[in-house]
Amino acid sequence: MGNTFGQLFRVTTFGESHGGGIGVVIDGCPPRIDITEEEIQRELDRRRPGQSKITTQRKEEDRCEILSGVFSGTTLGTPIAIVVRNKDARPEDYGRMKTTFRPSHADFTYEAKYGIRNWQGGGRASARETVGRVAAGAVAKKILSILHSEFEIVAYVAQIHEVTAKINRSSVKVKDVEKNAVRCPDTAAAKKMESLIEKIRDEGDSVGGVIECVVRGIPPGLGEPVFDKLEADLAKAMMSIPATKGFEIGSGFVATRMRGSKHNDPFEMRSGKIRTATNNSGGVQGGISNGEEIYFRVAFKPTATIAHEQRTVTSSQEQIKLAARGRHDPCVLPRAVPIVEAMAAIVLCDHALRQMAIDLPGRSK
C-alpha cells in the first residue's frame, strides 16, 4: 500500500536502502517513445551519493538497468522496470538501531505500524528510495518534451538555513544550477551555503532549507477539479519526498498579507494568447494550469541523523542516549533538487496524459 503514485502514468517504487537494490516500475508510458539508459543515468548522476564533499560519502555509482518495457531504445507501451543495485551498503553501521529508535526518524513509527522494520539504514524510509522516482522522472520529462515542445523544468536551492539566494526565476536555466555543488544559481550565495554546510558537518550537525522549482511551456488545461487539482497533486508529490515539511505555490503564504486587489492576476492579450499580467497564482487557477510559469517552493528539514548525542528510547522502553553512526548528508538539499524535478515531471506527465484522454480530435480551444 502507498507505493504507487499517479493515475494514467503510474509509478511504483521498490527496494530498501541496504537491500539488493532500488527500483521502479512505470506503467502507462506511451509506446514509441525513444529512451535510453544513458538519458536516465544523467538524472541519477545528479542524485547519487558521494558526488561532492558536502554530501554523504557513500560510494554508489547508481548504474541503472532497464529490465523491461523498452526494446532497441524505444518504449513498448508495456510496464518499464528499472533497477539500480546497491553496492556500498554497510549494515554494520546500524547495529544499535535494531532496538533503538533514532530521534525524528521513521524507526518508531514504522514499528508502530507494521510490528517489524528493516533497521539497516532506515530500509524503505531511507532517501535512497528516491532513486526509482528520479529514474521515472527522466521518462516523464522525455514524454513531456514530446507532448509540449517548450516544456522546461528547473529546480534549484533557494535557501539553506538563513542564507537566502537572489534568483531570477523566469530566466534561470539548468546549466546555471549545475555550476556548483550546492545547486544554487546565485554564485555568491552558493559559496556561503557551501561554507555553512561544511561548518555544520564538522560540528556533527545538520541544516535544512528551501528548494524552488519553475516549470515552463505547460499549456492551459492540465489538472482536475476538486480533489485532483494540479497544485494538490504537486503538493502530495513534494510532501512524499523524505525530509519535506512544507509546500507553497505561487505567492504562497505571502498571499495572507495581500489584498485581493493586489493579489489577483489580471488577464490580457499577448501575441494572440490569453495571458496574465502577473503570476501570483503560480501558473494554476482553480486547480488547472493557465499557461503561465508554474512555480512552487518546498521546505526541507535538517537531516535527522547527526553525530550529537541525543536522548531516545529502545524497543524495550529503556531511556538511553545515542550518537548516530553512518554516512549521511549534513544538508539534503543539493541532492534533492533532481528529486523535486522528477516528482513534478511525474505529476505533469500524468495530467498531460489525462488531458489527452478527454480531448476530442479536432476540438478547438
Using brief descriptors, characterize the structure shown.
alpha+beta; about 375 residues; Chorismate synthase, AroC fold; single chain; five-stranded antiparallel beta sheet
CATH class category? Alpha Beta
Unreliable spans: none
Kindly report the spatial arrangement of strands forming the biggest sheet: 1-2-3-7-4
Helices, by number, come to 8
What is the average of the pLDDT values?
93
Total number of domains: 1
Q: Output the CATH homologous superfamily.
A: Chorismate synthase AroC
Number of strands: 18
CATH topology: Chorismate synthase, AroC fold
Proportion of residues in extended strands = 15-25%
User: How much is the radius of gyration in Å?
Assistant: 21 Å
Shape: globular
The secondary-structure class comes to alpha+beta
Q: Estimate percent helicity.
A: 25-40%
The N- to C-terminal Cα distance equals 39 Å
CATH architecture: 4-Layer Sandwich
Largest sheet: 5 strands, antiparallel
SSE string, helix = H, strand = E?
EEEHEEEEHHEEHHEHEHEEEEEEEH
